[in-house]
């Protein structure tokens, strides 16, 4: 049996994608308002579960079921290039799923429940028969929930050992909705392969110009709602920070909209950074105010 090189395994699991759920989990911890004394081991284990385990599993699952699309869009990836030979991509996806569940079970019921939900969505997103990613509306919703809302909820629930405060849930939901727009921009790199293989991403359905305008709107409106909520919760300084970061994103969006296909990757490396900084500012607003 041919065994893939460790470098191919690392590339399959895509460490660069782990940041978003790890960051969201940390935001959930912060927003809970709970102290970290004696909780560091659980928090660190939760961050590892969110990124190198559950998120990495989703990447392996996606690459296995996307291998024919990747042969068109990105033939250098481990599976279509042959560096992850045979059915090794599927074996890694299944093995990482099991490992994620074992770690989650050891961390308690809240984390296990969240991990089960996230892993289920990961498989439903990529695998037949549902293959949610075949339609950008559904697929991007699933990814937004898994990357932002679910880990935020989990981080807060672990610290509170209960369902988080309603304000925490509201912020987690709003930033999940905004992530739908980020996922739309991520689809710009694979428009040709998606079109040829029947994947109806939003750039395929709407065209790149309309999809970019929609993505900007979907990213901006939830953040505007966060600003309004923070003001209503008497957190003007935190609201001001989120508003300033949103204004920065709006300025960057002008360049994106001038050349959506050419600038989508650039915006995901610049505007998205401002987006996630706003998440942390909002999380600190709840920590500063305590639970309602």
Automatic annotation (TrEMBL):
Keywords for the protein's UniProt record, in alphabetical order: Cell membrane, Chlorophyll biosynthesis, Membrane, Transmembrane, Transmembrane helix
Membrane topology: Multi-pass membrane protein
Main subcellular location of this protein, as a coarse class: membrane
Cellular compartments annotated: Membrane
Pfam families: UbiA
PANTHER family: CHLOROPHYLL SYNTHASE, CHLOROPHYLL SYNTHASE, CHLOROPLASTIC
Protein name, as recorded: 1,4-dihydroxy-2-naphthoate octaprenyltransferase
Organism: Methylobacterium isbiliense
């Amino acid at each position: 049996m041919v065994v893939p090189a460790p470098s191919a395994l690392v590339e399959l699991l895509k460490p660069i994608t782990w940041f978003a759920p790890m960051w969201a989990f940390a935001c959930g911890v912060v927003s809970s308002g709970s102290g970290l004394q004696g909780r560091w081991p659980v928090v660190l284990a939760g961050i590892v579960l969110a990124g190198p385990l559950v998120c990495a599993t989703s990447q392996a699952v996606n690459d296995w079921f996307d291998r024919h699309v990747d042969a068109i869009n990105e033939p250098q990836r481990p599976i279509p290039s042959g560096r992850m030979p045979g059915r090794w991509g599927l074996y890694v996806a299944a093995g990482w799923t099991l490992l994620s569940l074992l770690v989650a079970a050891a961390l308690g019921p809240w984390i296990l429940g969240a991990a089960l939900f996230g892993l289920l969505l990961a498989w439903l997103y990529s695998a037949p028969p549902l293959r949610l990613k075949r339609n950008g509306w559904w697929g991007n919703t699933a990814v937004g929930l898994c990357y932002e809302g679910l880990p935020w909820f989990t981080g807060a629930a672990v610290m509170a050992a209960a369902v988080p405060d309603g304000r925490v849930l509201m912020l987690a939901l709003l930033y999940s909705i905004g992530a739908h727009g980020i996922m739309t921009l991520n689809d710009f790199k694979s428009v040709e392969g998606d079109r040829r293989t029947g994947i109806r991403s939003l750039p395929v359905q709407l065209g790149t110009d309309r999809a970019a305008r929609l993505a900007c709107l979907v990213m901006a409106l939830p953040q505007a709602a966060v600003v309004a909520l923070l003001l209503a919760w008497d957190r003007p300084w935190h609201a001001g920070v989120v508003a300033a970061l949103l204004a920065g994103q709006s300025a960057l969006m002008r360049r994106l909209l001038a050349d959506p296909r050419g600038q989508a990757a650039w915006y995901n490396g610049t505007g998205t950074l401002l987006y996630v900084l706003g998440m942390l500012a909002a999380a600190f607003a709840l920590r500063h105010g305590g639970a309602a």
